[in-house]
Amino acid sequence: MKLQVVHRTAYGYATPVKESFNEARLQPVTADGQRCHSFLLKTIPAARLSHYLDFFLNYVHFFEITEPHDKLSVESISEVTTAPVALPCDALTAPLSRLPECASMEQCYDFIQASAYVSLSPEVWHLAVDACQGQTDIWQSAVAIMRFIHSEFAYVPFSTDVNTHMLEVLARRSGVCQDFAHVMLGMLRTLKIPARYVSGYLYNSAGGPLAGAQASHAWCEVFVPDHGWRALDPTNNQPADERYIKLAVGRDYADVAPLKGHYKGTPHRTMQVQVQIHSLAAGG
Questions:
Q1: Are residues 65 and 178 in the same domain?
Q2: Is position 250 within any domain?
Q3: Which of 256, 232, 70 is nearest to 162 (CA)?
Q4: CA distance linking residue 29 with residue 35, whole number of Å
Q5: 104 plus 237 within the same structural domain
Q6: Which of 57, 73, 216, 248 gives 25 a disulfide partner, CB atoms 3.0 to 4.6 angstroms apart?
C-alpha cells in the first residue's frame, strides 16, 4: 500500500516568543516491510534543519528559531509504502519460560522497565496475571492483554492529554490510543515481556470503524524470541498491518513525541494539529 501523509502543526503565542529550540520525530522509518520514499519538513518562520538518529534509532530533525515570532507552523509530507507483516492473533510462538532470554538481551532491557508514563505497580501486575490466566505462550499472553484493554476500557476522544499517566487511565477506565498503549506496556512489562511504544499513523481507507485513524496514532510492539518485534494495537484490538505507518519507537510517549522543544516567552499558546492520509494507488 502506497500512502502520502501530510502532518501540520500550528502554534499561536499570546505575545512574541524567541529562542525556540525544537525536535521533530515525523519521518517514517524504513524497516519491517515499510519504506519511506520521500520526506519533506517545512517550518514558518523558516529554519535551518539538521538531523540525527536518537538512542532508539529514530529519525530526529532539529531546528531553532531565535528571532521573535508569534506563530510557528511545522509541516511534514511523507510518501511511504507499507506491506503486511502482521503476526496473526492465533499464532503460537515461544513459551513464557523463554522470557529470561529476553531479559539478558540489550535490545530488550529498556523495554521491561518502568518509564515516565508506565508503572509496574502490584495493581498492574494483578491485572496482567488475570488477563493472561491460562496462557503459556508469549504472543498469546500479549494478545490476551490487548483484548482485555479493548474490552474493559472506553475510547473517549479528548478525555486525556499527552501528560496523562497510565495509573490515571487505570482509574478512569477510559482514554485514547496513547493511554491504551501505556496501559498495555505496563501490563506486559510486569510479566517481563519486553514491550515498546510506537508512534505513527493509521490509514482508514473508507472511513471505517477504526479508532484513532487519520490522526497521530499509538500502539505497542512486543518482542517474541525467534520472531522479533511484533505489533499489536489495543485501541482497535488487532495486529498492526499495512494500514499502519510507523514513525518512532521508545519506552513511552516521552521518547517519541512528534514535536517537542522549549522557548523563551509567554506560557499562553494554542496548538492545532491536522493529519491527512491519502492512498497513492490508482483509484485509492
A1: no
A2: yes
A3: 256
A4: 7
A5: yes
A6: 248
Length of the chain: 284
Residues of the chain with pLDDT under 50: 283-284
Cell numbers for 147: 483484548
Whether 236 and 132 map to the same domain: the answer is yes
Burial class of residue 106 in the structure, from the number of CB atoms within 10 Å of its CB (0-12 exposed, 13-18 middle, 19+ buried): exposed
Half-sphere exposure of 239 (CA within 13 A, CB side): 18
Q: Does 37 fall in a domain?
A: yes
Are 106 and 237 found together in one domain? yes
The per-residue pLDDT for 211 is 79
Helix (H/G/I), strand (E/B), else coil: 82: coil
The Cα angle at residue 54 between residues 262 and 251, in degrees rounded to 5: 85
* pLDDT given at position 215: 76
User: Which of 274, 178, 152 lies closest to 233, judged by CA?
Assistant: 178
pLDDT the model gives residue 206 = 62
Listed residue (124, 136, 102, 115) closest to 223, CA to CA: 102
Check if the beta carbon of residue 284 is closer than 8 Å to that of residue 189.
no
Adjacent-strand bridge partners of 232 = 220, 239
Q: What is the 3-state secondary structure (H, E, C) of 216-247?
A: EEEEEEEEECCCEEEEEECCCCEECCCCEEEE
